[in-house]
Amino acid sequence: MTLRLAAFLAAAAAAALPAQQPDRVRTALAQLQSENAATLELQSSICEIPAPPFGEGRRAAEFKRRLEEAGLRDVRVDSIGNVIGEWPGTSADQTAVVLSAHLDTVFPESTDVRVRREGGRLLGPGIQDDCRGLAALIMVARVLGRNQLRAPRSILFVGTVGEEGAGNLRGVRYFFESGDYRRRVHAFISVDHVGLKLTRNSVGSHRYRVTFSGPGGHSYNAFGMPNPVHAAGRALARIAEIQVPADPKATFSAGVVRGGTTVNSIAASAGFDIDLRSVSPGALNALDAAFRAAVHQALEDERRRWPSSTVPLEVSIDTIGIRPAGAQPLSAPIVQAALATARQLGFNPEDSDASTDANIPMSLGVPALAIGHGGRGEGEHTLGEWYEDGERGWLGPQWVLLLAITLAGLQPR
After folding, report:
1. Number of neighbouring beta carbons within 10 Å of residue 55
2. Which residues contact 176 (CB under 8 A, 6 or more apart)?
3. Residue 209: pLDDT over 70
4. Global confidence as pTM
5. 280 lies in a domain?
6. CATH number at residue 55
């Protein structure tokens, strides 16, 4: 972070915002509350457009249309599929605050994405993750345009592709790798949590596909050779015994197991996909090393089990996703700005660790965090996912607006 940016954010965070907000800021905040039903309608309508992994195009087109209607400038879809629109700043400084929400879901194309209402709840795949975030961004763009809220710095609205699972943050990675965006971004906010959470610790993850392979054979006639399924089992058993620290938290999980063709065959290949996570880069790297040692020890154990066999057994560890871990200290100016604006709205955000689009800018040294979009819900990443606005769901979009204009340097007039 540059000294200039640190000084600016510190001043913004320390400002007595209630007395200094222009009348139109208060009007915009009031509109986000009074038009809460419109936010929910956006949330539902966007969610009924499928956005499976690597298939976000239709939802991206609708998000683009909505940002254009809100009055953003130069709304476009980049070459990887991200939607980007700009609310220009008033100064010659080309730096910008980024508001980001992700377009994709974890669900395949065939998923029924119709949204149902049960009382005050909205039920549907992705309804909170991250249809709520997309709706919040559109509503914030609307009130900025309607009230002509201008700040010295621009505000970029970004709908990213590939945030979930195998997408491996491909949208936000591309955003920072292409053009001049990395140079322009002074603060990055990912809107990607149910509730009013503040994520200043980004959970990193290493994801691998482990495959043991050999020639295979008949379960009876070829008995006595190393068995890839057994080797995979040995590896999983060893991994299950890895001791991880509670602080900093580190976790591991084998989420997919595969292999074999018939019950009466020695499989030619078998393996599993594994997810390793931690908020600490050091703890994550230590866990990675322990995982690899367990896999290679399992290979040797299975080979030694059949000393008379000359049949080969090999193992491969292929990377299927790397997300960097990172953290912003409580004293970081961007964190203090988020806390100050939350207090201005009358709440204290819940501290949370998560993996979001903010992982990438944070790993690059760009001030970044993730915040909640209001309401409450459960069932994230399941077909039973639901969202309920509660008594003050509108606080989420209000927080997004107030934090964005504060970081963008809006001054009283």
Report:
1. 16
2. 182, 185, 360, 361, 364, 366
3. yes
4. 0.89
5. yes
6. 3.40.630.10
